[in-house]
Fold this protein.
Amino acid sequence: MHFKALAGACLVAAAAALHPARAGAQAAKSDSAKQDTTHAFTAAAEFGGRDYLGTFNPEQRGKFIEYRDMPHGFAVPNLFFGYAPGDGFRQTSLAATNVGQLDQSLHLRTQEPGLYDVRLEWDRIPHVYSTTARSLYQETSPGVLTLPNPRPTAAAYNLSDFLPAVRSIWDPVKLSVGITPSEKWDFKADFTRIGKSGDLPQSMTFKGSGGPASEFLAPIDQTVSDMKLSESYAVTRYQLMAMYDLSVFQNAIPSITVDNPTATTDATSMAARGRMGTAPNNVAHTGTLVGGLNLPMETRLTGSASYASWRQNARFIGATVNTAVTNPLINQLPASLGADARTTVLSGGFTSRPFRDISVSAHYRSYDFKDDVANQTMPIVVVADRSIDTSITVDRMPYTRTNGDASVRWRLASPLAVSFGYNWNGMKRDPEVRDRARVTETSPHVSVDLTGLYWATFRATYSTARRRGSEYTQQPEEDNQAFRRFDEADRDRTSTNLLATVTPVDQVTLSGSWDIGHDEYVNSPFGLQSDRSAVASGDVAWVPNDRYTVGASLTRELYNNRLLSSYRSGDQPSNPTYIYINNNQDAITTTALNFTAVLVPDVWEAGGTYELSRAHVHIFNYNPTTPSGGTAARNTAALAYDFPAITQNLQPVNVYVRWKLNPDWSFTVRYQGELFSQNDYETAALQPVTSSFYFLANNYQNYDARYVTITFSFHPGSLRVLRPTL
Amino acid sequence: MPRHALTRALAVAAALAFAAPSAFAQQPAHAVPAGYAGSASCADCHQKESASFGATNKGKLFLNHPRNDHQALGCEVCHGPTKTHAESGGDDRGGLITFNGKHPSPVAEQNAQCLQCHEKTARMLWKGSAHESHDVACTDCHTLMHAASERANLRQPTELETCGRCHPAEKTKQLQFAHMPVEQGKIECTSCHNPHGSAGPSLLAANSINEVCFQCHADKRGPYLWEHAPVAENCANCHDPHGTPHDNMLKLSRPRLCQQCHAGTGHPIQPRNPALASDFQFVFNRQCSNCHINIHGSNNPSGEFFVR
């Protein structure tokens, strides 16, 4: 164990505790005597150390540190400084979490409640993709990944060392200014900048679907800048709000060029390297107006209008890096796309209560997406840096989505209400690029709500929906014309949602929910046939007295997706024995237990949580009839087999004992463990070189992490609530 | 962290923090209107609640620094006139609005108290919203009487726990294999949703699902030269942002996810046998995305089929 850091932390804390914290004492004193002081400084801190029990290798930690940093040694989970002049009404504070770690955050805030609130926040987000990746690429310049020449052997890949943790890091910095100069006016400005850096696993084929292909770490250097301004004017009768949003995306690496691991010279059949485009720089402007008007009989009218322009005119990269492809059309490529997509959103709402027990409401909304580009034809496309297509029309995907609803709510008795409603959704698409010009879905629904009772809450909703559309033309035309895409196909949907909370006695609360969804794709000879879900959840909380709480919950999720397909080849476009059925079944069970106990009031307390999440993913495949009639190779290709099951298991446990040295100081010993295991055929046995594919071969490894965290906390009760410690 | 942003923010913060206390310290006297008892009267019997509320920001505003006559009503801003209740020694509830306990006021009456001041900005579309129309009370999620959360006066320490009380499946999805860093506190439910009502679907905090996603994933906004139709229309066609057992929060494993739409001749629609060496690249690692890597769209002139 790494006791040095823990010992150091203990010494610091002990010294502070034995000299009852000048700062703390002053803080406490100032808290009670705020009316008499002109400046009050307060502080809070949680610090200590973390150490792992047993072996926990770096390559095992991928999933464990997916979104966090968990180093051993000294740790400062929470730090807080506050300043409040006068009687403490105006406050300025600086809070930090996970100080010095990759996932640290900083929050600076100054406020006078009801007048202004200014915040500056930086909350770093690490995302680890792998700790077991293997690659021989070197980034010789930004976005250019090269291999030695001559190319390394398969053994060199397979025997190479694991790379350091592959991660991207987001650095979101947000400055938020809110001012309420009077009760009628509100002004808010948010400036957000998200810097993205690190690496992201990507892959590329150098020929076709049979490879060779290579997986690599694509560097990231991106920035998202966003400015939101809003101004609101509100009086009892009406309210208005105007908003403007400017979002700018900038990418410093416009392309990724990657060496072909199997070739060193360009040829028309295959390039020595390939180049992929990355996300282009783009800008979006959005302006929105929202209004509300209150009228007699609790009537309210609302409306909003929003218009946005998304522009993208980044300079195109060249058609290919393959020097063997010399078609003159390459020089006729336009310089950029000149894209200007526009969205127009109009919505309106009406609610009223014409009678004491009856409310009515109605809404309408239209979302129109137009997608115009300056250049609609590409003179040449070099697919995979090798095969040439010419004069390709660039498809645009405009659509208009409209929806409306109307409902009546009847309060049968004081806590009981019943609602009847009807929803309508319409989708209009371009039939030149999509399969259907129009799709309409109608949905009546009923709901019952029992609320406002001390001992029970009950909510239930049932809805049934019917989606139908205009003539269906499968795109492209050479595809199976009986196939129906799930987002455009005819569909019957039913949905039932129940939620109940009962408090039979003061000490016990029982709650449960049950959600069932069933989509049936009624007119789809091929394609998605049905999609079912069932989620049941139960929860019990027992609070026998002020000192103890116990809770437990169980959630069971089942998802079943049934797909009907038919293998097709050039000489067997519609062989009925090539039909296969695919059932995707996901089952997830999540159990949670928790307790808190005040062992000795104001001195000793304890608590803990345990969670267990188990997932089973099965893909079942079968042919109703054994494939026949084609060549032996075709018949074999048409055979459907079950996929190996995927299992995932996550068990975090967290138990702590806290000793309150005095009202401000406490000492916590926390034992935490996390067990993760998975069995995923997709990556479990992957070697870097398999056939002509060169993978990173990364996979989250199983782990059984156990660690102890000892923290001292100085936290005057009058201070803000600190962020819960993980 | 950009220095200029930090410097500007520090300057603003310093200016506000050290501004002369007297600028807002002088509060005009506010008379207690007829029917009202005054907050001092409430504290006579409800010392614990009064002290707890007084330590909150709203309590400091209402009880010590009201900016108008309405806020000066203190406890009675939310609980309504309590003179009858006070004069009866607590026996007569009078027109008292209560938010908890064994005899809470009807939800609509409770919420009306909050909307007196808050029917504006992000709550302008509360009436008629999914939560309002199911009689969800403001106090189902918020509490004003003590500080239970880091921000937003939530009843639970975090948004995940607050929302998870009625949406348990969305909460437990955070434990699934692929999820966003919600449990780590890096993003919250309100990063995407406005639970107080919105003009968008599913109480989203933007006009569409895609526009919510583009707030952070602006790289996916394009518009691209080569667009992928289901991506351009709705990110949720393929992803469940609350969490799934599949890579990248996909709703289904590939290649089946892709085969829901792709029925072309040859490799897209083959059933694929994991035991066959020739099927290896279609069912292992990234499956279809081993080659079709720019599946969200490509701006490469040769990005047709999303392989570049």
Remarks:
- Residues 200 and 208 of chain B are 6 Å apart (CA to CA).
- Chain B touches chain A through 135 residues (CB under 8 Å).
